[in-house]
């Protein structure tokens, strides 16, 4: 990996505006999932360093809160500009530590930067209300204030965008933040911190605690009373555990957890569009997103046409090194992920699914799994109930709208759902009937900074992106002001 700006690659944690090592100098390696080579070693911070990061964020909070939204927006705008100015370097770093193809990494840098731009502007609009009074001589106001110090625990699948989606609204309204990035992808988080420093974000306002001891550092972030809000993206079991831990100090929570997205193709769908949507939703990031189509339901009348076109599109995917041009699917993040995909495909085949494409490790790389198409999937299979988080598309055949709605909703998860069809009355009915936080209608791509991203049921709560995403970092204070006079 050659970087135009070598300082994009930082190998120290970032606390209170300083680049620090662990107290005991411990480090852990960050590996390229395609080559297996160590890219860098970063500090393995423990509880004491995490507490210092919280203290720094708490100390920086009053001054950052007291700046005007416009002053904060100006600094954030510089941060946004710097991300785009270093888009190629950031993308190269992301592909090196995460494995996704370079075109997707470049796209993620722009997607991640868009949260900074959008929230910098939206921070100026954190309006309050003047409420008609209940008593003569009194005035009633509701003002919005920042919640305080925020902890952000972020995943490896979008190592930039999942940080900016939390940090940008927090900073825009005056909160300060401690980020704990995923152990697999700390380098993108440190690059973001480097650019934040360059942009003039003051010491302590943004801190990045790298660690290979997530439970120890997570324990500090969930128990420390100075942290008033925790925002987490990751698995449902971890989210439940964090929620338990955070209950001791009643922190505000945003939890963006697992999904099990249905992707429904009705008989009247336009086949080409449905296939393009299924490819985009299923194979983005090699199938490693919480909103990836996990169950593809196809109505009997269009089944053969859809499966033939879908199968042709999957067969054209090129696997390999994300850094090589033309690669569509890179490696999975680690061996545990690969083994999970293998186990789920084997379970489906054992229970009667037909392996139409793929179904094995690829010779193109140690952590690469071939794009896979499973036909004849049914509810007895693990893949109907659990996210596969890999490039595997199971297709289920259905006949009626009622039947497919019941199957789509038969899951504890409720993050994203998708469907394709043209009948307007049915579009409205199905959109309302799906028990999901987000529904893509005739599209497989729903992610954008301007829309509220989030789930229901065991996919969590809270919204990220859009004006709703800023609410999660604000608290309402009611002012009752007496002695003013009439009316
Ligand atoms: C995720 O996988 O958690 C987020 C995906 C996205 O923002 O599109």
Primary descriptors:
7-stranded mixed β-sheet; alpha/beta; Aldehyde Dehydrogenase, Chain A, domain 2; binds succinic acid; 2 domains; 14 helices; 38% helix; 6-stranded mixed β-sheet; Aldehyde Dehydrogenase, Chain A, domain 1
Question: What is this structure, in a nutshell?
Answer:
The chain has 14 helices and 22 strands. The mean pLDDT is 98.
Textual characterization of the structure:
This protein is α/β, with parallel strands linked by helices. It has two domains: 270 residues, Aldehyde Dehydrogenase, Chain A, domain 1 (3-Layer(aba) Sandwich); 188 residues, Aldehyde Dehydrogenase, Chain A, domain 2 (3-Layer(aba) Sandwich). Helix content is 38%, strand content 21%. The strands form six sheets. The protein has a seven-stranded mixed beta sheet, sandwiched between helices. The chain has a six-stranded mixed beta sheet with strand order 9-8-7-10-11-21, sandwiched between helices. It has a three-stranded antiparallel beta sheet with strand order 5-6-22, with no helix packed on it. Strand 3 and strand 4 form a beta hairpin. The termini are far apart. The model has no long low-confidence stretch (mean pLDDT 98).
Set out the fold topology.
Layout: E1 13-15, E2 18-20, E3 27-31, E4 38-43, H1 47-66, H2 69-85, H3 87-98, H4 102-122, E5 129-131, E6 139-146, E7 149-153, H5 161-173, E8 176-180, H6 186-199, E9 206-208, H7 214-223, E10 227-233, H8 236-246, E11 252-256, E12 261-265, H9 271-283, E13 293-299, H10 303-315, H11 335-350, E14 354-357, E15 372-375, E16 392-398, H12 401-409, E17 413-414, E18 416-420, H13 424-433, E19 438-441, E20 456-457, E21 460-461, H14 466-471, E22 474-481
Parallel strand pairs: 7-8, 7-10, 8-9, 10-11, 12-13, 12-18, 13-16, 15-16, 18-19
Antiparallel strand pairs: 1-2, 3-4, 5-6, 6-22, 11-21, 14-15, 17-20
